[in-house]
Amino acid sequence: MPLHALAAFFxxxxxxxxALAINWSVAGVPYPLALLSRFAVAALAGFALLGLAxxxxxxxxxxxxxxxxxxxxxxxxMLCSYWASQYIASGIVAVVFGLIPLATALFARWWLxxxxxxxxxxxxxxxxxxxxxxxxxxxxxxxxGIPGLAALLLAVALQSxxxxxxxxxxxxxxxxxxxxxxxxVCAVVTGIAWLAHGxxxxxxxVDARALAAIGYLxxxxxxxxxxxxxxLIRECRPGQVAVLSLVxxxxxxxxxxxxxxxxxxxxxxxxxxxxxxxxVLHQRNQLLRR
Length: 290
Description:
The protein contains 13 helices and no strands. The chain is mostly helical.
């Protein structure tokens, strides 16, 4: 449907710009403080949006449970990703996160009894191969990076598990009410992490670009991005949403070409082709119905 396609395009756009925004947001700002600032601002904006839009929602035990597992899973996944990125090359990060559709499918098989068709498996494999092709120059890894790789795999598992549990638990709940509460839990968890790191502050004045990046991650990346993500999870199979994570790294490279005049190599063209082929194959049944 057009609305679902528009939401998917918006998510890809947000996820494609997130890595650059994170890089800017930690310029001169300790990453636990950057994360805390992002989620604290996002939580306040999330509840403000609910009030301004007069979206009907009511506190319940079920909603509280969804807030808790979604917020804990998301914040833990983000903390693992930020920490691992200090020790793992960006190419490894991109390829490991390309495993999210497969991990999501496994959790969906376990919790929702969803079956993964052969063409979907092949589509995911093509997508991961495309990511490996895109970032082949950055796939450097040695034994010292094993803890970082383990943290990254944990982040993937947490993100995938949250998506599938949301499908099971939050089907009748307003996605923006779910998001506002989950962001509040994220703010609390990242606040605890910030305190555990000794409550570090910025070493000097924070430049305007870092502040703008934190604002973008809070309002666009978290409030709108997570809200749309939760809505898509409610409306579609979790695996269909997870497969968008294969497209975002390629889209980020093409944005760099369009906005920053970065060169597009044969490797980028080949990797993008593999990802698109994998996406078409994965979504074959949905495309044939139209």
